[in-house]
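Escalation from tier 1.

The customer reports that the assembly of two entities below gives different structure tokens on two consecutive runs. Tier 1 could not reproduce it. I'm attaching the input and our single run for tier 2 to review.
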Amino acid sequence: MSDTVLDVRVIHPLDDEPEAKLYRPELGRMRMTRSVRVSLLLLQGYLVLMLLLVAARVAGGV
Amino acid sequence: MSYASLSQEVSAPPAWRQRLLRYLVVAGPGLIVMVADNDAGAVSTYTQAGAQYGTSLLWVLLVLLPITYFVQEMVARLGIATGQGHARMIYQRFGTWWGRFSLADLMVVNFLTLVTEFAAIALAARGLGVPPAIAVPLAAAGLILLVGTGSYRRWERMTLGLCGLSLAWFGLAWMVGPQWGAVLRDVAAPSLPAGGLTGQLVFVVIAIVGTTIAPWQLFFQQSCVADKRLRFADLGAARLDTFIGAVAVVAFAGCMMLVGDALHRSGGSYQDPAQMAAALAGTLGWAGSKLILLLMCNAAVLGATAISLSSAWAWSEAMGGRSTLEARIGEAPRFYAAYAACVAAAAGVVLIPGAPLQAIILGVQVIAGIMLPSAIVFLQLLLNDKEMLGERFANRPWNNWVNWGCIALLFALSFILAAQVLLPGLFPATA
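Tier 1 run:
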């Protein structure tokens, strides 16, 4: 019985047919769950604090 | 012939060969983002850390290995799942305000970092006997030509070639004759350097963390994965690519620390790469010292192309229009114009006599340190967006525990940095 080994071929992603991805523009903005809202609020607070620190440092002379 | 007998005669190719081939076609974004992360600033940071503290901070790199991998794996997964760049995802899912904030933050930090890359090219070129007025425009032109071929694959191959040159760090680390016993001890048993916790040590550790994980890396790898059009089935290979990249970045960084350690042992000090190369000439010889300068140039060029691309991808994703290396210049004018403008402007700043390069380097460290935690928060929220990603690509609970741990660590380091700025006496200045 002949035992023919198949060629191994992998298609480069750029040569392959584009696949349908999970992102759809109609999804719009992320739903603002409590954890998302809290994360963004904390981030805003952190950024304001850091900007104030940098401003204070610059005003005081680096 | 029945279907069953056909399957008896024809044996399937070994699974490992299939996996290896898939890895080879998928590899690139993870390796490039990691090796490019060892840019000129990183070379300075790691060698300085070695020169000041010897091998005693090697364990920090080992701690950073999983953190780097987990953060970048998330971006690769997001890019594969959505087929979109990071900037576009932030715009679409968090709205214009956060989109503009992230874009502006990225563009500013990237531009300042690019200036430092060209500054390093100027310094290293001077050490090699090439006037900066020639080396800097030449490097800028080369960087623009590198991406302007209209072929992602061509850019990727050339960039991987540049990444391969970084292997020479292993040779340099070997040539400086490390004390392997001390190296193994400092990797395996974390401890503070002699002198204990000082303000300088805290600053060096924060600089190492900030150098190893940078905001541009998130934008770069996701856009790169999307540009390469990696498929869902490529996720495993993309993870391996990212892991190998993470190991490479830490291994090269370790080699740089060992090179710096040679100066620590000999008591030498330096301010810039040219002085470092000169100080090591006794240990490495003339060729070795020139190799350091060439590797510094290579690191700066790699960093510059990756950072400029992350800016160009983000800018054109946010502004609309094509944003792919597969397009010719006329087909994606906004993308290529953004890339060329970043490169040309940064090179131009370096050529201005008396430009405040030291202030720019300080500015990069401060702004990047402040902004990194916010970039990772967006990433974490996007990876928990099950409405978009579904169960398959969204974070698992253990992912979230690891990532919130990384975020907490980064916030803590930012606060320590801020506290040091406000209260300079918080830690003793020296031992």
